[in-house]
């Protein structure tokens, strides 16, 4: 097997049998090696990962064939045991998971592992959501050059959350070699010290601008990391892909849709303005419908006092008998003969059952008072019905029960305020319905949708390629103080 760089000591011992899972070695496939001669000068055991999509639009079959041809040349000229596996560095956008399912995009060495690249400014909520969706489709995502993603550098703990969600984190060797004031390099070294990174790779493209440089990184790692972790980063973990084994033991049911509360929270927060607008819209619609479309209802009430004799109340027995009679009077007040007489007296165009639905009778606790309420769209008619009902019921009870008729102590009046519907209540219910429905849609989309819907996340292609229909990006990136690369656009 070969070495990425030829040095002495612990470096060469650790790097024996190294597997490089991220390199652009195929001649002419993308912005990597220009020809076979350049490819052969950069070889060790590796997985070739040309960009998807790329300007050359290579098919999966062409990548495989080129790997076989380059491997044959490398074995003849460099090392008979050298191995080159096919793969692709996939820039995540709408539809790539379907292409993976169809075999039009390659995983790493035909394993479940996929090398995924994202725009450097992708939000953490989107990145976390995508990792979950990739896992739900049965693939094991490796996040390429994680040092480039601003959302991971902004807050501690996010790398661990992604690992718990099923992602593996790959860092470039060159991320470690920046100056002490380089924020990205400081973050990268800290992640290695905290053992947050799963594997290192060269991400080599060519001999001049992005060669397979790893010696400086190894020099730093030898001083600060133990040999076991270095072997995991450079040899053991990357090697699992070509051995058909998993770096981590994940238990996952491909037929089950797993709902993650944190993912749902991020999705709801990301669309909070849409949800609030839906709530406001629901309130406006409900309020307008209540005010202009629904028929208002008015209520008029009267009160009857139940007496046991014509004299004043003088004994406890009178009170007890009066309380018992109120239950009988409540039933008799809404009896069919009483209601039909009210209908005839007022000339109402309804049957007694319809009138009964307009009437409410109540008896306040520990009293002999009957409260009669009538609801009607007309305030005048509500008053007329309740007063007529009180008189007819009083006479009917007195005649049929041979007792003192209930005394009308309060007549109904014309109501000035409608009883229902309540515009305020319905508006609040409309707001709640809008929030609930829009939130439910967001949750459903989060659980079922496996594509990015934010155009900013897919508008620009990653460094080192030009996507048809987009502005190109300079294949040779420059360093700045906020990241390992600074994109340069050209027409």
Gyration radius over CA: 40 Å
User: Could you tell me the number of beta strands?
Assistant: 17
Low-confidence parts: 1-16, 248-257, 310-314, 450-491
> Which secondary-structure class do the elements indicate?
alpha/beta
Biggest β-sheet, characterized?
A: 6 strands, parallel
Q: How many helices in DSSP terms? A: 17
Mean pLDDT equals 77
Query: Going across the major beta sheet, what is the strand order?
Result: 3-5-6-7-8-9
State the share of residues found in helices, binned by percent. Answer: 40-55%
Beta percentage is: 5-15%
Distance between the termini: 43 Å
The 3D shape can be described as rod-shaped
Question: What would your notes on this structure say?
Answer:
Helices cover 44% and strands 14% of the residues. The protein has helices at 10-14, 36-40, 60-77, 96-101, 124-136, 150-154, 158-165, 183-193, 215-224, 227-243, 261-270, 272-292, 316-333, 336-346, 352-358, 379-401, 423-448; strands spanning 20-23, 46-48, 51-52, 84-86, 89-91, 113-117, 140-143, 168-172, 199-201, 298-305, 359-362, 369-376, 407-410, 472-473, 478-480, 483-486, 489-490. Helix 2 (36-40) links the parallel strand 1 and strand 2. Mean pLDDT is 77; it is low at 1-16, 248-257, 310-314 and 450-491.
